[in-house]
Amino acid sequence: MPLNDNEAGSGLRLDKLSLGYGSRMIVEELDLKIPPQAFTVLLGRNGSGKSTVLRACAGLLKPKAGTVLLDGKPLARFTARESARRIAILPQGPVAPEGLTVSDLVRQGRYPHRSLFSRWSRADEEAVNEALELTGMADLREQPLENLSGGQRQRAWIAMSLAQQTEILLLDEPTTFLDLAHQAEVMSLITALVKSRRKTVVAVLHDVNQAARHADHIVMFKAGKLVQQGPPNIIMTREHVRRVFDIDPDIIHDPKTNAKFILS
């Protein structure tokens, strides 16, 4: 999704960002603008820096150099509570205490909006109810998480993130370990959030065909470097896929959506 001049200072932007753990550098001098109110997918092989970039976007990883900017202001200048009101992140494979119900989990999303001694408010309750409705989890609100299917659990975690009422939602491999039906469930929910709620969603995915079918914007990484970015129909070429994934694919068009489909 192309950007216009009015969007230049809005949302998330990475400026000469270098990231790593200890002495090991993962990403170096990355410049990236996340399109607002769109679904962006980060693609690349394992170890390419996708999840590292996502963590930096949430303020969970301090840059070695460069800056993460939120609406033109360095994210490091926001308090943890302030950034949690703007950006929600759902890590890969989150784990909840045994016996926690869906409602209990979703209520935790209200933490950034509540002070230490504040009472549960009508606004809190409305945010939780809306998140449950949006994710189709309202009828399961009193169910323990361990009683749910994989797709239902993932929707419950997404509902918790939605209860934060942030404009930006970061998802690290939200469909990993789900069967095909539950993957489709989660992807449909994500695209609906972008279209109907005008959320900015950034997700790390392994499935290039999910990205090609559902994303508005794709960013390809290899060895910590940005290889290419743009709309799926432009980015998903044989040359780009070969360069990033070291495979020589055939590319066809999905007969339902006309999106490109990768055959390795």
Automatic annotation (TrEMBL):
Which InterPro entries does this entry report, sorted A to Z? AAA+_ATPase, ABC_transporter-like_ATP-bd, ABC_transporter-like_CS, P-loop_NTPase, Siderophore_ABC-ATPase
Q: Name one Pfam family in it.
A: ABC_tran
Q: Where in the cell is it found?
A: Cell membrane
- GTP-binding: present as a keyword of the record? no
Reading the lineage from the top rank, the first entry is: Bacteria
The ABC transporter domain is annotated at: 12-248
Principal cellular location given in the protein's record: membrane
State the annotated membrane topology for this chain: Peripheral membrane protein
Keyword Membrane on entry:
yes
GO biological process, any = iron ion transport
Which keywords are on file for this protein?
Answer: ATP-binding, Cell membrane, Ion transport, Iron, Iron transport, Membrane, Nucleotide-binding, Plasmid, Transport
What is one GO cellular-component annotation here? plasma membrane
Q: Name one GO molecular function term.
A: ATP hydrolysis activity
Report the SUPFAM superfamilies cross-referenced here: P-loop containing nucleoside triphosphate hydrolases
Q: Which family does it belong to?
A: Belongs to the ABC transporter superfamily.
Annotated protein name in UniProt: ABC transporter ATP-binding protein
Q: Which organism is it from?
A: Shinella sumterensis
Its ancestry begins with: Bacteria, Pseudomonadati, Pseudomonadota, Alphaproteobacteria, Hyphomicrobiales
